[in-house]
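May I ask for a protein sequence together with how it folds?
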Amino acid sequence: MLAALALVWLTAGCLPDSQRVQMGALFDQLVSARTLLGEQPPRAEQACTTVGDVHTRLTGEPGLVDVRPAWPALRDATQALQAVCGQNIMLGQPSTDSAASTQARQRWQQGIQREISVACDHLRKAAAALDRAQPC
């Protein structure tokens, strides 16, 4: 009986941390979403749904916030990608072709590129924290 208990204890000690495993899966999803948003044309709907799902899990699942420093890096990457989603929505709106509308569209396009870069910076931090390959 004692030997069986010791075997269970030793086996449990070798299992991967479930929160780190979840964070790895969320990391992969964000990397995929960032790739979709960087395509021309971007597959924004699919990517933004993924980003929203990851955000919900990052903020709603107990214990994930304790996976440091990966959690803040993934949270920050999610926020940057959500900004990209918002700017893509704005770019998809009909334009009046006025000077102000043209300038706004240029700023949104620049904002998309900037936020994709910011997301990449945060994903690199998360990759280092999770012992994963650099995503971008």
In short: Residues 15 and 41 are 42 Å apart (CA to CA). Residues 18-129 form one domain. The chain has five helices and no strands. Confidence is low (pLDDT under 50) at residues 3-15.
